[in-house]
Amino acid sequence: MTIAFYISGHGFGHASRSIEVINALVDRQPDARIVIRSEVAPWLVARTVRPGVTLEPVACDTGVVQIDSLTLDDTATLARARAFMATFPARVDHEVAWLTRVGATHVVADLPPLGIAAAHAAGLPAIALGNFTWDWIYAGYAGSDDLVSLIGEIYSRTTLALRLPMWGGFATIPRVTDMPMVARRSSRDPMAVRDALRLPRDQRLVLASFGGYGVNGFHVAAIRQVPGYRVLLPGDLDEAAMYEQGLRYEDLVHAVDVVVTKPGYGIISECVANHTALLYTSRGHFVEYDVLVEAMPRYLRTAFIDHADLFAGRWATHLDALLAQPAPPEQPATNGADVAARLITET
Fold first, then answer.
1. What region does 64 belong to: left with phi over 0, alpha with psi -120 to 50, or beta?
2. pLDDT by residue for the chain (347 residues), tens digit each?
3. What spatial distance separates the first Cα and last Cα of the chain, rounded to whole Å?
4. By CB neighbour count within 10 A (0-12 exposed, 13-18 middle, 19+ buried), where does 323 fall?
5. Do domains 2-181+335-346 and 190-323 have the same CATH topology?
6. 208 close to 327: Cβ distance less than 8 angstroms
7. Rounded to whole angstroms, what are the CA distances from 215 to 10, 151, 260, 294, 315?
8. Cis, peptide link before residue 111, omega less than 30° from 0
9. CATH number of 2-181+335-346
10. Comparing C-alpha atoms, which of 231, 241, 234 is closest to residue 199?
11. Handedness of CA 14, 17, 23, 29 (dihedral sign)
């Protein structure tokens, strides 16, 4: 069995959850060959994937153009997507040749249309994995009808979609199976993690997590003095050293009391799986945002902070109110990676 994973290069969430599925596949079928086709950061793959899985960089979609983690460019998003789709037939031919050359038996896409189109053209199972489809995302931008129609037609050739919670789209995919959450779950004792990272045991810890695009403009001095809290800003921890100690990012999420972030499937699912509260801010014109914000209160303690208070470091009142909330009403299953691995091998 040779499985090709086409993973969107948009942010870290697509890659982190796909890698969880890949690791579950390796555990389930150790002799499987798995190749990732993506522009995802190589360091993320190297630090988190099982040995033997390989990454072959390839542009497989254009996602949403982001100025930073909280600011999007609608016009550039559509322009870049159209430019990519203008060369789509040649890209599909190239991928079909590659799939044939490596003897691929399955294709999983999270959720680039290129992976679906190439699998269909090569006569292979085309398995979609994700919580949204790009036709649905682009439909939220004015003047996108051509892209929405084209991408929706490609998705209609999907063999099976493994649809994760907090979803949007999937209208054109003929066969959809709803899944438990795919989430990175820590097995470490939180206090042991704090000790390993030289973080205090007796303070409430807050992790500012804004993904690969980052955010500028924080009033750092004010954030350092948030009363009653120790805040970890990007760069405060040596993540390379953390991974060298055998720790992973989900261990850090489990060890802190609150994550401050913008809503995205990856960080939400990690907070759910590790019982960590989440303080979120708005992230610009991204259609997924409303779906995630509506769903979050069912699964975890969560609250909103506007950009003014976020950047000024006026966090204390928001954090106090968040941590005073009762436990969430639902505790969803987070074994989606194992379920997905089984369904992929059975398709």
1. beta
2. 999 999 998 878 899 999 999 999 999 999 999 999 999 999 999 999 999 999 999 999 999 987 777 878 999 999 999 999 999 999 999 999 999 999 999 999 999 999 999 999 999 999 999 999 999 999 999 999 999 999 999 999 999 999 999 999 999 999 999 999 999 999 999 999 999 999 999 999 999 998 765 677 899 999 999 999 999 998 899 988 999 999 999 999 999 999 999 999 999 999 999 999 999 999 877 889 999 999 999 999 999 999 999 999 999 999 999 999 999 998 999 999 999 999 999 98
3. 12
4. middle
5. yes
6. no
7. 16, 31, 12, 24, 16
8. yes
9. 3.40.50.2000
10. 231
11. negative
For residue 181, the 8-state DSSP code is: P
CATH superfamily of domain region 190-323: Glycogen Phosphorylase B; (3.40.50.2000)
Q: What angle do CA 340, 3, 161 make, to 5 degrees?
A: 40
Sign of CA dihedral 266, 234, 326, 195: positive
- Residue spans of alpha helices (H) in the chain: 13-28, 42-48, 74-86, 88-102, 113-122, 134-138, 145-155, 190-196, 220-224, 239-244, 249-255, 265-273, 288-299, 307-312, 316-323, 336-346
Q: In what order do the strands lie in the sheet with 204-209?
A: 229-232, 204-209, 258-261, 277-280, 302-304
Structure tokens at 107: 């294709």
**Domain ranges in the chain?**
2-181+335-346, 190-323
- Tokens 């350092």 belong to 224
Given a contact cutoff of 8 angstroms between Cβ atoms, the answer to whether 162 and 179 are in contact is yes
What's the predicted TM-score (pTM) here? 0.94
Q: Measured between alpha carbons, how far is 270 from 273 in angstroms, rounded to an integer?
A: 5
